[in-house]
# Entry
Amino acid sequence: MFLSKLESLTNALKLINDNQKLMGIEEIPIGETHKRVLAEDVMAYHDSPPFDKSAMDGFALKGENTFGASQSAPKEFKIIDAIGAGDFSSKTVGENEAIVIATGAPVPDGADAVIMKEYTTTDGDDLTIYSQVTPGENVSPKSEDIKKGEKILSKNTFIRYQEMGLIASAGYDTVKVFKKPRVLVIITGNELVEPTKEEIDKAKIINSNQFTIKAMIEDSGAIAEIIHAGDTFEEVRSAVLDASKDYDVIMTTGGTAISKGDVVLDVVADVGEILFHGVAIRPGKPAGAGIVNGKMIFTLSGQPVAAMSQFDMFARKYLFELQGRPFDFKVVKRVSQLKIPSQLGRTDFIRAVSDDECAKHVLNRGSGIIRSMVEANSYIIIDENDEGYQKDDLVDVVLFDSLLW
# Structure
C-alpha cells in the first residue's frame, strides 16, 4: 500500500485515542499487586491504628500529672502494670500512676500520654520522671491513618509499595486490578539473523528490535511475546490474524516503508482497517496503526531508533491507558546548548542529553544509530509549527525516565 499524505502527529494520536480500550479485571493477592492499577475503589474495613497506641517505648500516664517535672524537680509515680506489643492492660491508670508500655501497644484506660523511658529512672515499682509531657504526646490516636468505612484509594490508582501497605492495613488480602495486556510482536524481515559472534553473511543484519521492543513493552506494564515472519504477504497475514485472536495488542517491525511493497500495511488493509500510515515526524515517518478483529496493531519501522521512537510516540500511551493508567508526556523546559534546525509541518523527537538546566542534542541522529539512544537520556520535542531552535533557546524536553511504568 502506498500513502502519499502524511498524517500530523496530533491527528495520529487522536485516531489511536478514539480507539482506546480498557482491559478486563482480575482479583489477585495483595502481595502480587506491585505496579498494577486498581480496578476498584478501596474502602477501609478497619481503623488504623485500631486503638490509641504508644508511639515509643516508655510509660503510659496522665500527661497533666507530669506538669512541672524537670531534672531539678523530678516527680514520683507508681508502676502498676506492664504492656508488651500485642498485649493490653485491663487496669486503669490513676493519679500519679504509670504502666510500662512498648511501642505499638494500646494506651491503657486513664492514660493520655507516654513519656520516653530515657527521661525516667526506676527502682522496682517506683518511677521517677525528669521531664513533662502534654496530653496526647507520643500517642498515635485511633484511626489516625485510616478510618473504617472511608475510601482510602480510588480506582485507577497505580499501586506502589506504599499503596500495598495501605491496602493491607485496610484489611484486604486480595484486590481487583486491571489485567496486564498480552502483546505479540511480529518481527518481519528475511534479512534478519540472531545475535552471533561469527561473521554475518552479506545482506544480513542482526535482529536487535526483538529485544528493545520487548523490553519497552514490559516497561509499559504489559506482557510481550516475540515471533518472526518472512516478508511474504501470506506469512504476515497468517501471523496477524492468529495474533488478533489470542492477544490484546499486535506490533510489527519492518515492512512499513511508505512505498510499494509495504507488506505489513497491505495485510492490515486486507484483514482490518488502517487508522493511519505515514506521520509527519522524525524519526519514524513510516509509522502506522490499524484495527484487526477489534485489536490495535502498531506497525513500527525496522530501523531500531525509529522503532523505539515510534513506540514512545504511539504505543506506550495506548498500553498504559489499556491498563487504566493515564499517560502524557511530562514536558520540562531546558536551555538548548546548540542550534537545532527543523522544518514546518513536521514534529521532531531529537535524542538529547539533558541535565537540570540544559539540553544538548546528540549529533549523530540516523534512524539506525542505536548508540545515539544509548548516549541520550531524553527527547527534545520540536513542534510542527516551529522551524527549530537557536542556541540558548528554551526547548521542550521529555526525560526517558519519565516514560517508564
